[in-house]
Design goal:
Length: 305
């Protein structure tokens, strides 16, 4: 992790030193990958936030809106593939695209890297002898005009910057699992996540889909018949989160527990009305997952819902 005092100023000064080659020409060290489906409301702002990059790839799931046209007009390389699941889609984007640079920054269309993160990316990907092969990044989620710091369980760490040849994505319906071979560190900058840019209806529709994907993953975890107890105390935050998911799908009163956890245990009440609303919405999402599991179990027995 970049922990020096005044790290933002330090990172920017180092960036200025490495952005220019001996002829005074800017050189880039990381490509950007953006997965899309019907993201015309977000894609332009996302692409504008990565103008520092000379190799931006949009990997689209055959959008029916203007996403592809906007992406092409702003200079992105566009590839398309039919969506099957999130893990497979990200793995296809990793192996089917010839990236210009060895490092790849993976974004969603509703995310924007902040200035500190951009400076860090340019720095760490240009360091000769850097032994790390990946970096985790924190996300700032925004809702109702403010950063939802507590209700969104900040900080959650996501592996988004990596050397493309040392990772792979395991097939998974949603919230894909990243497998990486080599040391991983953390960066101090953030991804700014505007998941409500397309409106509340779009968010709800997306989470209805996610709920049934999660229900399938819950069934797999329940059928496996074990809880990863050691993962609950692992140093790796991703392992801890995965183990917690495996435990939570076995608990009673999950929607209520999800609300209490976010609003009281994680101090979501400090986020004001936005925090209260968000915690209620996540409890509803948890209810949909529970219903999805129930429906799948009844189908296994030949019963209708």
């Amino acid at each position: 992790m970049l922990n020096a005092n005044n790290r933002t100023t330090h990172a920017r000064s180092r960036t200025l030193a490495i952005e220019l080659d001996g002829h005074g020409i800017k050189r880039m060290t990381a490509s950007v990958l953006i997965l899309t489906y019907n993201e015309q409301a977000n894609i332009a702002d996302c692409l504008n936030s990565v103008r520092w990059c000379d190799d931006v790839v949009v990997f689209d799931s055959y959008s029916t809106d203007a996403t592809v046209d906007i992406a092409k007009s702003l200079g992105a390389r566009v590839f398309q593939r039919r969506f099957d699941d999130y893990g497979s889609q990200r793995e296809a984007a990793r192996v089917e695209v010839d990236y210009k640079h060895p490092w790849v920054l993976a974004l969603d269309a509703d995310e924007r890297p902040d200035e500190e993160l951009v400076a860090e990316i340019k720095t760490v990907t240009s360091q000769p002898g850097n032994c790390n092969v990946g970096y985790r990044v924190r996300v700032k989620d925004f809702f109702m005009g403010r950063w939802i710091k507590h209700a969104c369980l900040y900080p959650t760490w996501h592996l988004r910057l990596f050397k493309n040849d040392v990772i792979r994505y395991a097939p998974r319906s949603v919230h894909e699992q990243v497998l990486i071979d080599g040391p991983v560190d953390k960066l101090d900058g953030h991804l700014l996540h505007h998941s409500f840019n397309k409106g509340l209806q779009s968010w709800l529709e997306k989470h209805v889909r996610y709920a049934f994907f999660e229900a399938n993953e819950n069934i797999k975890s329940l059928d496996a018949g074990r809880v990863d107890w050691s993962g609950l105390v692992a140093r790796d935050p991703v392992c801890r989160r995965r183990a917690l998911k495996g435990l939570s799908c076995r608990l009673p009163c999950r929607p209520l527990l999800r609300f209490l956890y976010g609003y009281f245990w994680r101090f979501g009440f400090l986020d004001g009305r936005a925090g209260f609303t968000y915690c209620r919405m996540m409890a509803i999402y948890e209810s949909m997952i529970v219903l999805g599991v129930r429906e799948l179990r009844r189908k296994e027995q030949g019963l209708s819902m």
